[in-house]
Write the C-alpha cells for this entry.
Amino acid sequence: MTLEEIHGQEPVPAGHDWMQGAGKALHELLASAQRRGCLTAGVYESAKLMNVDPDNVAFCVLATDEEDEGDIALQIHFTLIQAFCCENDIDIVRVNDVAKLADIVGPSEESGEPRDLHCILITNPNEDGWKDPALEKLNSFCEESRNVNDWVPTITLPE
C-alpha cells in the first residue's frame, strides 16, 4: 500500500480559495515557462532531463485524464518520477485535466503536433535561479500540502 492509497489524493483541506489560487498560479507558471523556453513536456523527455540535470528542475506537473487511470505503464512512470522528485527536493503536483493543460501549453513548437503532457517539468533558465511569484506560490502550496501528509497534491486548473 502506498502513501497515496492510505491518504488518498484529495486536495489540501485549506479551503477553496487556496486551491483556486494554486490553480491560477500553475496556469501563470506554465504560461511564463513556455514563453521563457523553460518547459519540458513528455514522460520520456522529462525522465531524460531529470537524469542528466536534476538540479536544474524547479517544478514537476503530472497530468492524467480518467482514461489514463488504467494505464499501468504510465502509473509506473509516475511512481518513478514522484520518487525521483522527492529524492531531489523537486515540488510536484497532479492535474486531472490534460485538455486544459493542452490549452495552456499548446502544441509542440517544432512540429505543431500535440505533445505528451502527462509530465511537465519547469526548469531554471540560469544558475541564479528563477524568481517567479507563481513558482513561489506553488512551492508554498506544496509545502503546506506536505504538512498534512499530501505529498503529491492535486490542483484544479481554472476555467
Remarks:
- Residues 6-14 have pLDDT under 50 and may be disordered.
- Helices lie at 3-7, 16-36, 43-52, 72-87, 98-105, 133-147.
- The chain is about 45% helix and 15% strand.
- Residues 117 and 123 are 16 Å apart (CA to CA).
